[in-house]
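Batch job 17 of 40 flagged for manual review because the log was empty.
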Amino acid sequence: QVRLAESGGGLVQAGGSLRLSCAASGSIFSINDMNWWRQAPGKQRELVASITSSGSTYYVDSVKGRFTISRDNAKNTVYLQMNSLKAADTAVYYCRIPGQGWGQGTQVTVSS
């Protein structure tokens, strides 16, 4: 079983930055894509960013130019650098390895 442990969430003022980390451990099969998702109160969970094993990335339009996803394959860890944060970014952020599991989530709260 894969365990995904997120860290780095918290409370920040609008315009500030946070860096999320997610480390995978346990029975890990070959990891291809690694994702960050988020779910705001009353809204559906949405894919925020994704990165392939070769480093190709995807971002939802609302975070392009502000968020950067990266990974350290040797550490089975994915990161999400979030800059110029907005109140609309407030959500629980989850990391995911498609087909292998989800993290427990970390709260990000941006005060306006």
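Reviewer: the log was empty due to a logging misconfiguration, but the result itself is present. The radius of gyration is 13 Å. Unflagging and moving on to job 18.
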